[in-house]
Amino acid sequence: MAGEAVWVESRYGDGVWSIGPAGRWTLESAGPAAEALKALRPERSGGPVRLDLGRLDALDTVGAYLLARLADRLAAEGHAVAVEGVRPEHAALFDAVREAGQAPAQPHGAAHHPIIDMVVRTGRTTIEAVREAGNLISFLGLVTITFARLLLKPSRLRLTSVMFHIEQTGLNALPILGLLSFLIGVVLAFQGADQLKRFGAELYVVNLLGISVLREIGVLMTAIIVAGRSGSAFTAQIGTMKVNQEVDAIGTMGLDPIELLVVPRALALMVTLPLLVFYADVMGLFGGAVMSYATLDITFGQFIRQLHTAVGINTVLAGLIKAPVFALVIAIVGCYEGMKVSGSAESVGTLTTKAVVEGIFLVIVIDAVFSVLFSMLGV
């Protein structure tokens, strides 16, 4: 149809190359319009160009993009392009399309200045960290509300899922946790004995072991191991379900993904981590007792008596009371990052790594807060 045709008039006059597109520059005529623009070739290099858009009968985003790309191409070839005659109803669209295709202007000298680049990266990282903290707190609130709803209706809690995750996060972690805790106790006893021998105070190795393992090292090492083992597993499991659209299917069936996927994992970890901490404490002290007997001739009976003198119930509770808090943090971070997975396997790997780093970081920060709090309370 003649009304849908597009054409481009091109002529030279007074040293100016005038280009006048006309017709309906819309999606339907994109093919002929692109061919017409491709056929434009200047008779001389450089020189001013007048792009007259006053004869356009219709213009949409596709047509505006083709004309904006023509203006940018001519400018790149050294022509001074002047766009004229744009109708008021076309001006806003053409300007928006042309601006969208241009890179934002950078201040002179700022693009490659290392100090400014460092400040910019620091600012972006800080803003992202604050936004991430807010989202994590919101997710914690959502999980807390779901917990409260389950307390009102305990029959909705899936005990089978909870017991399964207790086995995965607790029972299956015993070998690696026991071995590492035993070796940590051995190392602490050996290093402590080497230093205390200089003062003839070898027996106080037991005090060193009891306070350090029961109060700090046992719970902290257990939380770090669980964050790397179970926290990453939570992210990978939920993330894989997100990739396979299983989480969307759960929502489509009218089920709550938080109740089905997050709460059982968080509850299971809050049950198992205190037990794992107690187990790690026992293995760490056992490793220290073995090394004390081997290097200092401190019998197991002497070790136990001195341990009973050195530590009290408050020292044990100071370590165990942190465990449920660490467990909740690890579970929330792992499940939150799993829920953030997009539609690619690469996203699963990236967020799994992020979950481990965030979990360990928050555990150490909260442990420091507990230490300050216990010091203020005299515990």
Q: Termini distance?
A: 89 Å
Mean pLDDT: 87
Low-confidence stretches: none
> Domains counted in the coordinates: how many?
2
Rg, Cα atoms, Å: 34 Å
Give the DSSP E fraction (strand runs of 2 or more residues).
5-15%
Describe the global form: elongated
Count of alpha/pi helices: 13
* Helix/strand/pairing category: alpha/beta
- The succession of helices and strands, N to C, reads EEHEEHEHHHHHHHHHHH
Total DSSP E strands: 5
In terms of quaternary structure, the protein is single chain
Percent helix among the residues? over 70%
In this structure, how is the largest beta sheet organized?
Answer: 5 strands, mixed
Give an overview of the whole structure:
Strands 1, 2, 3, 4 and 5 form a 5-stranded mixed sheet that branches. Helix 1 packs parallel to helix 2 (61-76), helix 2 crosses helix 3 (88-100) and helix 7 (205-243) runs antiparallel to helix 9 (257-296). The N and C termini lie far apart (89 Å). This protein has 2 domains: 2-100, Transcription Regulator spoIIAA (2-Layer Sandwich); 158-377, no CATH class. Helices cover 70% and strands 8% of the residues. It has helices at residues 30-38, 61-76, 88-100, 114-152, 159-169, 174-196, 205-243, 246-252, 257-296, 300-310, 313-320, 322-339, 345-377, and strands at residues 6-13, 16-25, 48-52, 56-59, 80-84. It is an alpha/beta fold and 379 residues long.
